[in-house]
Design a protein that fits this description.
Layout: E1 22-26, H1 39-46, E2 49-51, H2 61-70, H3 77-81, H4 91-99, E3 104-107, E4 115-116, E5 121-122, H5 124-139, E6 143-147, H6 162-179, E7 187-190, H7 209-231, E8 242-245, H8 251-254, E9 269-275, H9 279-282, H10 301-317, E10 325-330, H11 339-354, E11 359-362, E12 378-379, E13 384-385, H12 388-398, E14 415-421, E15 426-431, E16 437-446, E17 449-458, E18 463-465, E19 475-484, E20 487-488, H13 490-495, E21 498-501
Parallel strand pairs: 2-3, 2-11, 3-6, 6-7, 7-8, 8-9, 9-10, 10-11
Antiparallel strand pairs: 1-14, 4-5, 12-13, 14-15, 15-18, 16-17, 16-19, 19-20, 19-21
Family: Belongs to the glycosyl hydrolase 5 (cellulase A) family.
Protein name: Endoglucanase
InterPro entries: FN3_dom, FN3_sf, GH, Glyco_hydro_5, Glycosyl_hydrolase_5, Ig-like_fold
Length: 503
């Protein structure tokens, strides 16, 4: 998503005059305002992502018991943050994710860890810690997703006490929404995790149709409550982009006709599913279970057919219908796995999703004692992807080539307006001038790489117009860079790239 500007030029693009019927939309920078962009454009800008797994969603009654018995008896966010093996998260760890080419960080959260169980009031200290991490993500020019995760399993109570559980769910989201109401569109709220789907209502292997309908209806009601609460919560939330959890986040179950996307008056939603298929490779380590046999390798023709069939199912049921898709989690253990197969599986899932305009978000966790050299996939101490071969594979998929040196005193062009000509199928981009700039350049993301269109826009000009007769409906990711002194602001340009669609 943030590759270096190349020296390649495409002769089909030039600066020309704009005529015809022009429609303008403002695109301010990250200043607390919401841009006039679709959720599909937001998902496109994310590129590929990574989870901050086993961290702020770590939970368990034993954590409080341990602190009471061996600690100081005063629970703090760090007790939970480190409970499942994570070091204390630092700004450098988050910046490392951006430096490795990720464009979005999903931060799963167990808000009930420090919450009054009678009033459902979330601890300000816990909220402050989540906010700090969110700020680091956004400051590193990435998108951030936060949710109510497994959260010690209280969502499983919905079938037995829907009214009480819904009250808890609504009360929690009202607080979360209020705490983050002034954040811009780089923050996305996700309705839940994998728990929206209950075998206590419907067993997929032996349940009845009426039981199935009842379970799906409950899932749909919860997702609708989520949208209703956020849209009524003030600040930027009436226009915030939202991520809707699929039924158990399974692809086949989410693609079932009984699953319904909620009604949203502003239509700013994406759908979330997870990908851990086949479970023998993606879930199990080195021991068989009654429901699957552990696999150490992946990459047969059948494996690829299964992967592509699943991704095509999401594309057909959602992407092709205008509903953006985020693969909120995909991953596999490293214990008991052939290293080459781990790279092959992770890169294949990433590419299959990315090539279908979906955003794949890697499930990455702290390295365990028995995980081997590349356990967890992202080394939080070294602040980099653990396996260099995996890093190389991701870069080949996205075209990311690392950071270009940037003059720290140079600003970057902030796009202020995008104008569309329906008559001539052209686009004009206007930006703010950069002090000391000698000229400007335009790059477009094509065929998996950033390709420079021009580097010769004079400093006196602060707009760029495409040729006529581009393909209506086709979207392009565009970056605007400035040359200040001897250095191009290429890295900043790519980080602040925008997606435009020809009309």
């Amino acid at each position: 998503m943030k590759s270096k500007l190349t020296a390649a030029f495409l002769s089909c693009v030039m600066v020309c005059s704009m005529a015809g019927n022009i429609q303008a939309s403002a695109l301010p920078s990250k200043n607390g305002t919401m841009r006039n962009v679709s959720t599909a454009e937001i998902v496109g800008e994310m590129g590929i992502g990574i989870n901050l797994g086993n961290t702020m969603e770590a939970c368990g009654d034993w954590i409080e018991e341990v602190d009471t018995k061996w600690g100081d008896g005063v629970l703090e966010p760090k007790e939970y943050e480190t409970a499942w093996g994570s070091p204390i998260i630092t700004k450098e760890m988050i910046e490392g994710m951006a430096n490795e080419g990720f464009g979005v960080v999903r931060v799963p959260v167990a808000w009930s860890n420090m919450m009054d169980k009678s009033t459902y009031t979330i601890s300000p200290a816990y909220t402050a810690r989540v906010k700090q991490i969110v700020d680091w993500v956004i400051d590193a020019d990435m998108y951030c997703i936060i949710n109510i995760h497994y959260d010690n399993g209280w969502v499983n109570n919905f079938p037995y006490d829907e009214e009480g559980s819904m009250k808890r769910y609504e009360t929690m989201w009202k607080q979360i929404a209020y705490a983050f109401k002034d954040y811009d569109d780089h923050l996305i709220f996700e309705s839940q995790n994998e728990e929206l789907g209950w075998e206590s209502i419907w067993n997929p292997w032996s349940g009845t149709q009426s039981q199935k309908e009842k379970s799906y209806a409950l899932c749909n009601r919860i997702n609708q409550k989520f949208v209703d609460v956020i849209r009524a919560s003030g600040g930027n939330n009436p226009k915030r982009h939202l991520l809707i959890s699929g039924y158990n986040t399974g692809i086949d179950r989410t693609c079932d006709s009984l699953f319904r996307m909620p009604y949203d008056p502003v239509n700013r939603m994406a759908i979330s599913v997870h990908y851990y298929t086949p479970v023998g490779f993606a879930i199990l380590e080195d021991k068989d279970e009654s429901w699957a046999k552990a696999r150490s390798t992946w990459g047969t023709d059948e494996d690829y057919r299964e992967l592509n069939a699943n991704m095509d199912m999401m594309k057909t049921n959602f992407t092709d219908k205008g509903i953006p898709v985020i693969i909120g989690e995909y991953g596999c253990p490293t214990k008991g796995k052939e290293t080459e197969s781990v790279v092959r599986f992770l890169s294949a899932v990433c590419k299959a999703a990315y090539d279908r305009q979906m955003c794949p978000v890697l499930w990455a966790t702290p390295k365990g004692e028995n995980d081997g050299e590349y356990g967890g996939h992202y080394d939080r101490n070294a602040c980099r992807i653990s396996n260099p071969d995996l890093k190389k594979a991701f870069d080949e998929i996205t075209g990311f080539n690392g950071k270009t040196p940037v003059d720290p005193s140079a600003d970057y062009p902030v796009v202020s307006k995008v104008e569309y000509s329906e008559k001539y199928h052209q686009i004009r981009i206007t930006w703010s001038p950069v002090e000391g700039a000698s000229n400007y350049g335009i790059a477009v993301y094509l065929a998996g790489k950033w390709r420079v269109q021009t580097q010769n826009i004079p400093a006196s000009a602060t707009s760029y117009t495409t040729p006529k007769n581009l393909t209506p409906g086709k979207s392009y990711k565009v970056a605007v860079a400035a040359k200040a002194g001897s250095v191009w602001t290429a890295n900043e340009a790519i980080r602040h790239a925008l997606t435009v669609t020809v009309k």
